[in-house]
Known about the structure:
By secondary structure, the protein is α/β, with parallel strands linked by helices. It is built from 9 helices and 10 strands. Strands 4-3-2-5-6-10-9 form a 7-stranded mixed sheet, sandwiched between helices. A 3-stranded mixed sheet has the order 1-8-7. α3 packs across α5. The protein starts with 5 loop residues before the first strand and ends with a strand. The model has no long low-confidence stretch (mean pLDDT 92).
Amino acid sequence: MDSCSTKFYRVDGYDSRETLESYFSNKEEMIFGDDSLKFPVENLFRTFNEGFIKGDLLIDVSGGSIIHHLYSASGCFKQICVLKCADKCIMELNRWIHKHTGAFDWSHTFLHIKALEGKSDLFQGEDITLKTAIADIKKCDFEKENLTDPEVLPLADCVITVWLLDLISKDQDDYRKNFRKIVKLLKPKGNLIIIGLLNTTYMMVGQEKIHVFKYDENFVKQVLNNEGFVIDCWASQKRSPVSDRIDYDAVLYITAHGNI
C-alpha cells in the first residue's frame, strides 16, 4: 500500500463502477456487505418506517454511484434530487435508471429491504418506486459556495450524505466547510442523515489508493452541535471484514435535525 501515491477524490475522481463492485456488490468475494450495505439499509429502514422524516424533497449528496441508501426513503418524499461530483457517477446512475446494458445490479439490496418489510415473496426484479422518485441527477461542485451554481435548488426537507464528506475533506476545517455547504441545501429545522466511516485514512479502488479523511465520534458530534443540529439517532457498527483494501474502524449512522 505504501508504494501507491494517494489520490484525492475531488480532484482525481475514482472508478465508480470498480467501487460498486468492490464495496457494494453481491459477489462472493465482496466481504464488506454487512458494513456497507446491511447496516445502513437496516438503519434507514427503521428511520423512514417511523414516519417522522418525510416531505416534498430529499436531496442526496453521496460518494460514487450508490443508491442503496435511497430505497427506504423513496416512499416518504415526492421527489429525490441526486447530486454527484463526477460525470462518470452520473453516467453510471443513468445507466441503472434507464435499464441500459451493463447497469449495476442492485437486486440484492432491494431483496433485503423487501425481506425487512416481510414481502420478499413479492419481489419481481423491479425497483420502480425509487427510479420514479428520482426526479433529477445534477452535477455539484464543492469549489463553489452554492453547489449547483448557477442553479439554485429548492430547500430540502431532508438531506442525506453517504461517505462523501469522508472522501472530499482534507482536514477538519475542510470537513466543516463542506458540511456547511451541504446543509445549506436544507430547510430550517430540516432533517440530516449522515453515513460515514470512523478513523479511516484510505480506500483502495482497483489499484488506486484514495484519500479518506480520518475523524472520530467526538469530532462529528462537535460539528453537528456547532452548526445547530440536534442528534436524534446515533448508531455505529464495529468493522467486521478483515482486509487491507480500506482501514476504517467502524461504520457510523446519524440522523439529526436543525435547531436554528
